Amino acid sequence: MPQSPADTTKDRAWSFHVQATSIWQYHPDFPATYTGKNSLLTSEPGQVSFTSTVYAGVRLWKQAALYFNPEVAGGSGLSSALGIAGFPNGETFRIGSKQLKLYVARLYLEQKFAIGPGSDYETDDLNQIQQHTPATYLSIRAGKFSIADFFDDNSYSHDPREQFMNWSLMSNGAWDYPANTRGYTIGAVVEYHTPGWAVRAGITQVPTYANGPTLDNQISKAHGITVEGEKNIRINKRAGVVRLLLFHNLAGMGNYEEAVKNSQPPDIEAVRGDPRSKNGLGVSFEQEVGNQAGIFMRGSWNDGHNETWAFTEIDHSLSGGIV
Fold first, then answer.
1. Strands lying side by side in the sheet with 101-114
2. Residue 7: pLDDT over 80
3. Beta strand residue intervals within the chain, DSSP E
4. Across the chain, what does the average pLDDT equal?
């Protein structure tokens, strides 16, 4: 009797990966008619950033898993990551000091609930345990994570560790996504996922001040709400995805117009106070065009009235490329 081949799709109880990235960047000297404290320096030595993350996950019970990511980061970007809204090193937002620091990047629980018949198969990956999952499900993720883990996840332009490194190509540039200095937040994301489309919504904490390390616990006065719809498409029998993202952030932001009126030079910190909002949207498209090639496009917008609170000073953006 011929023996049956081994089952290569066996469910596993855990997942473990380690990653490390180092980026060195330099620019030649250039002239500038004005240089301020937040400008890109006209002359500086090359700068190195280093990050390393452990991705560990364990299955707790049926369709439930706990993920834990300790991370170490250190170094610096050019001009301490100032002076360019679309900064060229996507790893520098994780760095809080030049010395290497160890911290918890992610610690969250994921639970999926089957909605209807059918199943899919997830391979072992970063924060993903190899297992069979429902084809249609409702999932809840709660804890500490990066909101960009679950939203605007473009296959060709999302991860600066292995794709384009520019900040404005990691996600929608005008999405002031809720995060502390290192790019992480605490909150919950609910997703309804089907084989053809998905919709997800999240509420998360924002920092106590712009780009600050400490998250604000006054949720009623300071939070980020993100909603995204996703539709799978096929062009010439090849897979593609279209996404629409909406966001609403609330925090004690300064207002740009008030800052200009009230002080010279303008001081945005002087007009911080009552909670103000920043609202915006982003559209994302990705399409496979060959076995080893894909294209992407993104367009994003926010209202631009109030202070950027967590990510970068971009109000409108349009990008595209091929990988």
1. 14-25, 47-61, 64-75, 101-114, 137-145, 185-193, 197-204, 223-235, 238-251, 276-290, 293-302, 316-322
2. no
3. 14-25, 47-61, 64-75, 101-114, 119-122, 131-134, 137-145, 185-193, 197-204, 223-235, 238-251, 276-290, 293-302, 316-322
4. 92
- For 102-146, what is each residue's pLDDT tens digit? 999 999 999 999 998 888 999 999 999 999 999 999 999 999 999
Q: Which of 46, 70, 45, 59 is nearest to 15 (CA)?
A: 59
Q: What integer pLDDT is reported at residue 4 of this predicted model?
A: 42
On the question of a cis peptide bond just before residue 265, with omega within 30 degrees of 0, the verdict is yes
Q: Which of 204, 203, 228 is nearest to 283 (CA)?
A: 228
- For the chain, give every domain's residue range: 8-108, 146-323
In 3D, which of 183, 172, 149 has the Cα closest to residue 302? 172
CA contacts within 13 A on the Cβ side of 24: 2
Q: CA 92 to CA 157: how far, in whole Å?
A: 17
In terms of Cα–Cα distance, which of 104, 117, 271, 302 is closest to 194? 117
- Mapped onto helix, strand or coil, the DSSP state of residue 115 is coil
Check: CB of residue 137 under 8 Å from CB of residue 193. Answer: yes
Beta carbons within 8 Å of 177's beta carbon, 6+ residues apart? 147, 148, 151, 171, 224, 226, 247, 310, 311
Length of the chain, please? 323
